[in-house]
Amino acid sequence: MTFPFVPTFLGVLLVYMVYSEWARLDSRYLVAGALVLLVATAIVDAAGATATANTLAEFVFFLLAGGVVLLLVDHVRDRPKSAPSVGRGSRPRRRNADPPDPPKEWKGPTDQSLDRPQ
Questions:
Q1: Domain assignment present for 70
Q2: Residue 106: its pLDDT value, please?
Q3: Inter-residue contact 9 to 62 (CB < 8 Å)
């Protein structure tokens, strides 16, 4: 009897995806892991282990799919609740508004004297 690697991997991946959303981890971690595993797949295939390379390629696919799902969830979650209507007169006009403050002067490193410690 062989160990069920693919269903185990999918279970661990699902648990990680749920935890990632709960802990608000960066959703690009799965995509980065897929790229690393893709390089490993190429190395294993070049070594001649085609069956192992095919299994790793499945894992790469699952990681990329999970990464895309997490990216979509992050995109939907970060969207504002009510989108402003687009069209004529949809933005209120500000009358007698104060002009914005001018930018503050910044002393760059070339403006400072370096002849003695201060």
A1: yes
A2: 65
A3: yes
Burial zone of 70 (CB within 10 Å; 0-12 exposed, 13-18 middle, 19+ buried): buried
Give domain status of residue 1, yes or no: no
What's the gap between Cα 73 and its chain centre? 11
Domain count, the chain: 1
Asked if 30 contacts 18 with a C-beta cutoff of 8 angstroms, the reply is no
Evaluate whether residue 118 is within a structural domain: no
- Does the reported pTM lie above 0.70? no
Q: Considering the chain, what is the average pLDDT of its residues?
A: 83
Report whether 66 contacts 18 (CB < 8 A): no
Q: Dump pLDDT digits (tens) for 4-63.
A: 888 999 999 999 999 999 998 888 999 999 999 999 999 999 999 999 999 999 999 999
Domain that holds residue 72: 26-77
Distance (Å, whole) CA 97 – CA 82:
25
Residue 73 lies in a domain: yes
